Each structure stands twice: as structure tokens, then as C-alpha cells.
Amino acid sequence: MPTNKNNSSSKITPLKNKKQYREFYFFGLFDARDKSLIPLQLIAILLAIIEAAQGVNNILNPESKEFAHTFAHLGSYSLAYAGALFVVGFKPARARGLLILFVIATIGFIVTSIIDIYGGNAGLATEVQHVTKLIPPFIVWLISKRAVYKFPDPTTRGD
């Protein structure tokens, strides 16, 4: 059964020349080829900003001096997580490759929250405040399902 290579669920057409390529990027950073992805990209960037702020806060202001090293590691993880969210927000075509990171991190977060609540180390009310950690996998999944781009053939580059 032959397949039609032009039949795609994406509404994005191949870029014909360098000028057209520039029109889809703002300042060379924000990929806006699929206008319907922009709200999801902005949510990913907002979540990345929140995560980065939490990471910097954990590094600079640990809750206790005896656990400062642990908070520094937590802050570093938060900054790496924020970096991945920034990549997805600015370059949605990369979402598919980073989806596993967000899924594994969320599963780990849910499991450790259940262990903390069950063991009496944290109350349900304190764990509910972390609900923002459950949003990124869904945003990244939605972006990865829709961000399918056709790149121009590099041998036919137009200037």
C-alpha cells in the first residue's frame, strides 16, 4: 500500500527560502511555525520560569543549614528541569525527545509524594502545592503530538 509523503496531520509547509525561514522565528529563538502551538509554548515557558525561580531559591536560600547540600542538589535539578521546559517552549520540535524526561520525573514525584504522605513525613496539604509538577508532561505531550515539521532539503537552499 503506497503512502503519500505529503499527507500529514501538520499544517506546516516546507520552508522555501531563508527569508521565509526567518519569519517563523522571533529573534532566532522562538519557533512559531505552527501558530496553534504558541499558547502551549507560552505555558511551557511560564512553567520553566517558575521552576527556575524555585531552583535558584533552593540553591541560595536553603530551608536549613544542615541540609544546604541537599537543597543545592534539588536546586540544580530544578534548573535542569527548567532548561528542558525552556527548550520545549522555544523549540517545540524537540518536545518528543524530552517527553521521557518529564514523564519519569513526574512518576518519581508522585511516588515520593505518596511515600512521604504514607510515612508521615509530609501532609496531603503540603504535597498539593506541588501540583504544578504534574502539568509539564501533559503540555510537552500535547506539543510533541502536534509539532511535526518538514524541514527544507539542505541541497536546495535558497538565499
- What is the straight-line distance between the termini? 38 Å
Number of domains: 1
Task: Look at the structure and give the mean pLDDT.
Answer: 79
Spatial sequence of strands, sheet with the most strands? 1-2
Global Rg: 20 Å
Count of alpha/pi helices = 6
The profile of the biggest β sheet is: 2 strands, antiparallel
Inertia-based shape: elongated
Order of helices and strands: HEEHHHHH
Query: What share of residues are in beta strands?
Result: under 5%
Oligomer: single chain
Helix content: 55-70%
Describe this structure in words.
- Residues 6-10 and 17-22 have low confidence and may be disordered.
- The protein has one domain.
- The chain has helices at 18-23, 38-60, 68-90, 95-119, 124-128, 135-146, and strands at residues 25-26, 30-31.
- The protein has a two-stranded antiparallel ribbon.
- The chain has 159 residues and is an all-alpha fold.
